[in-house]
Design brief:
Layout (H helix, E strand, L loop, with lengths): L1 H26 L4 H6 L1 H16 L4 H24 L6 E3 L6 E2 L2 E2 L1 H17 L6 H20 L8 E3 L6 H21 L6 H21 L1
Antiparallel strand pairs: 1-4, 2-3
Length: about 210
């Protein structure tokens, strides 16, 4: 038990310190490009910590998360190439290696964020319907702040530098779909690491917008 608590503290420290380091690195023009280069590694680190902490080695969990990964990649593909889902946008280079103009990590990001928000919503809501709705709203809340600095961070670029309202509707509906999959097929429970990750991420983007960009 003591070993588990010690490991938990290390994981919490890694999540929080990686966001603090990222905030500082992106705040300084001299180091900004270096830390933008590290963005994909940051995403992989946090996703790895989350999945390690949940420690679900079942075939069902692996299958569902892989399905979400593919679904996340495909909706972004059709979103970029048609402009009819989220609006007119294209990806920059900060999110790493691309396949068909879509960062490969974007699918992993959808997996991580939905597991995170669904776990966080478990704190206050036991009703499955409410839990899924709140988790999807938490997703939209996070995206709202990301959109404010996505151009500055070279994440993605909107046509005419304008974020259409349909983007938030699409984020909510797709998050709803993913959270439904997770809730139906996976036994989702609240994990402290999810709250640490979500709080760190939204604080990271809010602080960057307020103080830097």
């Amino acid at each position: 038990m003591e070993r588990e608590k010690y490991l938990e503290k290390i994981l919490f420290f890694l999540v929080i310190s990686s966001h603090i380091a990222g905030f500082i690195g992106l705040s300084i023009s001299l180091t900004r490009n270096i830390f933008l280069f590290l963005v994909p590694f940051h995403l992989i680190l946090n996703a790895g910590i989350l999945l390690f902490y949940f420690n679900d080695k079942s075939i069902k969990f692996k299958f569902i998360t892989f399905l979400i990964f593919i679904a996340g990649f495909l909706i972004e593909y059709f979103g970029v190439h048609t402009g009819k889902i989220f609006g007119q946008y294209k990806y920059g280079s900060a999110l790493g290696f691309k396949v068909l103009d879509i960062p490969l990590l974007i699918g992993l990001n959808w997996v991580m964020l939905c597991i995170t928000t669904l776990s966080v919503s478990e704190i206050y809501f036991k009703n499955k319907f409410l839990k899924i709705i709140i988790a999807s709203l938490l997703m939209v809340g996070l995206d709202f702040w990301i959109e404010k600095i996505c151009h500055s961070l070279n994440f993605w670029f909107w046509a005419d530098n304008f974020v259409p309202f349909q983007n938030f509707i699409a984020w909510f509906l797709f998050s709803l779909f993913i959270c439904c999959l997770l809730e139906v097929f996976i036994t989702m429970k609240f994990k402290k690491i999810a709250l640490v990750i979500y709080t760190s991420q939204i604080s990271f983007f809010v602080l960057l917008k307020v103080f830097i960009f």
